[in-house]
Specification:
The complex is a heterodimer of chains A (266) and B (610). By secondary structure, chain A is α/β, with parallel strands linked by helices. Chain A is built from 13 helices and nine strands. Chain A has a nine-stranded parallel beta sheet. In chain A, α7 links the parallel β4 and β5 (146-147). In chain A, α2 packs across α4 (75-87) and α4 packs parallel to α6. In chain B, the strands form six sheets. Chain B has an eight-stranded parallel beta barrel with strand order 1-2-3-4-5-6-7-8, surrounded by six helices. In chain B, strands 13-14-24-19-20-23 form a six-stranded mixed beta sheet, with helices on both faces. In chain B, strands 17-16-15-18 form a four-stranded parallel beta sheet, sandwiched between helices. The chains are: A alpha/beta (266), B alpha/beta (610). At the A-B interface, α3, α5, α7 and β6 of A face α9, α16 and β21 of B. The structure holds pyridoxal-5'-phosphate. Pyridoxal-5'-phosphate (PLP) is lined by residues 301, 328, 330-331, 406, 446-453, 518-519, 563, 565-566, 591-592 of chain B.
Chain lengths: 266, 610
């Protein structure tokens, strides 16, 4: 059992899950932002790890990773940062978002141990498709952590087996391509999501390119919730200077919080 | 896949149980006059307890038998396959197939002149073939082998027809290795697993072990031992499956093979020659040095082999947009060339840094009609160009064909590129035989991603020829400025495959260094990782200085300006030649010519006479 698999998250309607890059621009700022996102209404949090080759990410998140690396961001720091955020009062489920290679380097057993200690509930690895995931999925599951799978519009006949493996929640990739802002989405998404919901009990969250309040509301209505990454990361990026200065940080965090509140308000 | 094994002439329950426990894929029973003849009721009894799933396929051997008898026998014995071993015609075989639905009919072809034509007669009639030694008693089983040089021709014809083919006649544990060099689809063994007149379990096991040693990678998960796989975003998984299926179907088609063969020959200039480097041999001392001249190909390097083949595949798949990554620009130029020739649109992703360093190749690609996209992410070199190409592919997966330039990336790319480059090694085996009457003691190739090396090595694996891949040691192995992935890297995942990687303590991949733009890739093809760890191929590293030195040698002594990448292989030859005697040959893959590098060479050597 982890916070994702609790009824509080599993049965809630219109979930909202933001993504942020840990350590962007500093770990201290990130932990404050995490708590602010919770206050703004986040139901869970995706906690990104800076990596040299973020294959599934667009320019906005690539830049965030670079900013985080400038102040020493990496996987051990991301783990330590979550521990700190929990101390500051973060109580919503937290998902570590990292690529395969940092996990290999860290060692999956050591990572599982340290994720639990830091207060993580699940992990999302965008370059670990179903076929390569069996070993790790079992290990995470045995330790009460969810390995969140992704399904794309191009998954076709792979949808069923992936859906059935889902734990925590399922990430439906709303558009072909990398993370980043979009202006339009394909019509067939609603049908795809409905099909997935038939195969799995866990919430199906839609993400990739969701940018506006209208998008959020739309995806909260056709799926179990929406994930927003680049749009928020971009706001954080705009506040880089203010976040780096201890005198102006609190106000900058407040502005980010207001942005998110507006993004998800009805 | 390892060769399939058929143990023939089973005569007791014990034989059946032993053959199955040894791991036979097919069991053969003789229903024709022979000392090994058995009764259908007995076969039914002996095989009754075999597991129903995945059990060995039961084959009945008949010689010019009445159709009704065959049908009755097949039913009673529970046969999966009828093997017609006599003078049956394609009409007989066809009729039998119709009468026996659910049972396959194989035809035995006796090795003699006209045998290939005879195989063709059975196209669309026979479900499979068996080629046996021609003997007076048509039952074979006399323990004589035919000339196995003919095996590849038979295999090729069976592959063309899309059916299995067994090689039979005189195969024993003693000569199986010899036959396995010809990569037969299957082996049919009868007298070779007998001692006296009895089947011998130990001989069965020995044969099975020999075939298990056969190099058969990647496996169905796209793994070379631990390495390889498909570590890509879910969005691409369907495209990779589609590509793999299309690859297998399309490349088996006669029209594809003919068209590719034609392009490689008339457009690119294959086969490439093997040149004896007499002066270099004399200067280095020891082994006779031979050069496989990929530098003579159109566009000046082996990269065109792969670009033409993948381009043709893309065309047959109905894809109109080609994307590629390039570092030095060689693969980009080869791809742009192919796209111009085949009328496809072409985008080449290239790091901003590389575009500055390789201005001329950027111009060449644009002249050929390709769009060159400047990559600003990461370190702005090949690694980032590859990331960007993959990102573009994710977003345009329906229309776009990603043409990877080396044996890297997610499965099936490492396999596809290797198979499209193996022409280098296949030709070399033939040509060395012609020129020297024997194969080299050692074959050498430089390794960036590893495509020219895999092309040269793959056909030589398990042949006894020592194989050596050369990495770039840059400014030295004890400096941080190198690209020696295998020697210095750690296991990791980059660009969709698990291999060795140059990376920091947190799994961040960093830019390697080499004077040659084609060797400074932080990863290496997963198959090389496997070949190194399993000890099948040796890997060494040579420095910038050694490479430049060897480059000058080849210019002055043989009048050939090699690419700086290639010069790394030559530098190793300079080191290693002395350890051989004059009776040994050393074969180097001369992967490309150095025209593209003149600018760099001039900077390093100062352009002055020494
Ligand atoms: C002439 C030549 N040789 C070798 C290479 C290295 O590639 P690979 O290891 O895939 O053969 C390159 C790459 O650009 C090249 O241009």
């Amino acid at each position: 059992m982890n916070r994702l698999t609790q009824p509080g998250f599993q049965t809630k309607d219109a979930l909202f899950v933001p993504y942020m890059m840990s350590g962007d621009p500093t770990m201290d700022a990130s932990t404050d932002i995490a708590v602010a996102l919770q206050e703004a209404g986040a139901d869970a949090l995706e906690w990104g790890v800076p990596f040299s080759d973020p294959l599934a990410d667009g320019p906005v998140i690539q830049e965030a990773g670079k900013r985080a690396q400038k102040t020493g961001g990496n996987l051990p720091q991301a783990l330590a940062g979550m521990k700190e955020a929990r101390k500051k009062g973060l109580h919503i489920p937290a998902v570590l978002f990292t690529y395969v290679n940092p996990v290999l380097t860290y060692g999956v057993e050591a990572l599982i141990h340290d994720m639990k200690e830091s207060g993580f509930d699940g992990i999302l690895i965008p370059d670990l498709p179903y076929e390569e995931s069996t070993d790790w999925r079992e290990k995470f599951l045995e330790n009460g952590l969810s390995l969140v799978p992704l399904i794309a519009p191009s998954s076709q006949n792979r949808t069923e087996k992936i859906s059935k493996s889902a734990d925590g929640f399922l990430y439906y990739v709303t558009s072909l391509g990398v993370t980043g802002e979009r202006t339009s989405f394909s019509e067939k998404i609603a049908d795809d999501i409905a099909a997935i919901q038939n195969f799995t009990e866990v919430p199906v969250l839609a993400g990739f390119g969701i940018t506006t309040n209208e998008h959020v509301r739309h995806f909260q209505s056709i799926a179990d919730g929406a994930i927003v990454g680049s749009a928020i990361v971009k706001e954080i990026g705009k506040e880089e200077e203010a976040l780096l200065d201890s005198r102006t940080r609190a106000d900058a965090v407040k502005r980010i919080k207001s942005f998110v509140e507006a993004l998800i308000s009805y | 896949m390892r060769p399939q094994i058929k143990f023939c002439g089973m005569r007791s329950k014990k034989d059946v149980v032993n053959a199955c426990s040894a791991g036979a894929d097919y069991l053969g029973f003789i229903f024709a006059p022979s000392k090994r003849r058995v009764r259908p009721e007995d076969v039914c009894e002996w095989t009754a307890e075999l597991p129903q799933n995945n059990r060995a396929l039961l084959t009945g051997v008949f010689v010019d038998e009445e159709e009704t008898t065959i049908i009755q026998t097949a039913k009673t014995a529970g046969l999966d396959i009828i093997q017609c071993h006599g003078n049956e015609t394609s009409v007989d075989v066809h009729a039998m197939k119709t009468a026996l639905s659910g049972v396959q009919v194989f035809k035995t072809i006796h090795h003699e002149s006209g045998a290939l034509l005879r195989m063709k007669e059975f196209e669309n009639a026979a479900d499979g073939f068996l080629v046996d030694t021609k003997t007076e008693h048509s039952m074979g089983g006399t323990g004589t082998a035919f000339d196995w040089d003919a095996v590849p021709e038979y295999s090729e014809e069976a592959k063309r027809q899309g059916v299995p083919i067994f090689i039979a006649g005189g195969i024993t544990a003693g000569n199986a290795d010899e036959l396995l060099k010809y990569h037969p689809w299957g082996l049919d063994i009868s007298s070779g697993i007998e001692t006296g007149d009895e089947k011998d379990y130990r001989k069965m096991v020995t044969i099975m072990k020999k075939t298990a040693n056969v190099y058969a990678f990647p496996d169905e998960l796209g793994r070379f031992g631990d390495f390889g796989g498909k570590y890509v975003p879910e969005t691409l998984m369907y495209a990779l499956t589609q590509l793999e299926e299309a690859y297998h179907t399309i490349t088996a088609e006669e029209s594809f093979k003919a068209e590719l063969q034609q392009e490689l020959k008339r457009y690119a200039g294959r086969p490439t020659e093997i040149t004896y480097a007499g002066s270099l041999t004399e200067a280095y001392g020891g082994a006779q040095i031979y050069l496989k001249r990929e530098d003579l190909l159109h566009t000046g390097a082996h990269k065109i082999n792969n670009a033409l083949a993948q381009g043709l595949l893309a065309k047959k798949m109905g894809k109109t947009e080609i994307i590629a990554e390039t570092g030095a620009g060689q693969h980009g130029v080869a791809t742009a060339t192919m796209a111009a020739r085949f009328g496809l649109s072409c985008k080449v992703f290239m790091g901003a840094e590389d575009m500055k360093r390789q201005e001329l190749n950027v111009f060449r690609m644009r002249l050929l009609g390709a769009e060159v996209l400047e990559v600003q992410s990461g370190g702005k070199t090949l690694k980032d160009a590859t990331n960007e190409a993959i990102r573009h592919w994710v977003a345009n997966v329906d229309t776009t064909f990603y043409l990877i330039g080396s044996v890297v990336g997610p499965h099936p790319y490492p396999m596809i590129v290797r198979n499209f480059q193996r022409v280098i090694g296949d030709e070399s085996i033939r040509q060395m035989e012609e020129i020297c009457g024997k194969q080299p003691a050692e074959a050498v190739a430089c390794v960036g991603g590893g495509s020219n090396a895999m092309g040269m090595f793959y056909p030589y694996i398990n042949s006894g020829v020592r194989l050596t891949g050369i990495e770039a040691a840059g400014k030295g192995m004890d400096t941080p400025d190198h690209a020696a992935t295998l020697s210095k890297g750690r296991k990791g995942v980059l660009h969709g495959a698990l291999s060795y990687l140059i990376q920091d303590d947190h799994g961040n991949v960093f830019e390697p260094y080499s004077i040659s733009a084609g060797l400074d890739y932080p990863g290496i093809g997963p198959e090389h990782a496997h070949l190194r760890d399993s000890g099948i191929v040796n890997y060494e590293a040579v420095t910038d200085d050694e490479a430049m030195d060897a480059l000058e040698d080849l210019c002055r002594l043989e009048g050939i300006l090699p690419a700086i990448e290639t010069a790394h292989a030559l530098a190793y030859v300079k080191r290693a030649a002395k350890s051989y005697s004059e009776d040994d040959a050393l074969l180097v893959c001369l992967s490309g010519r150095g025209d593209k590098d003149v600018h760099t060479i001039q900077q390093v050597l100062g352009g002055a006479d020494k």
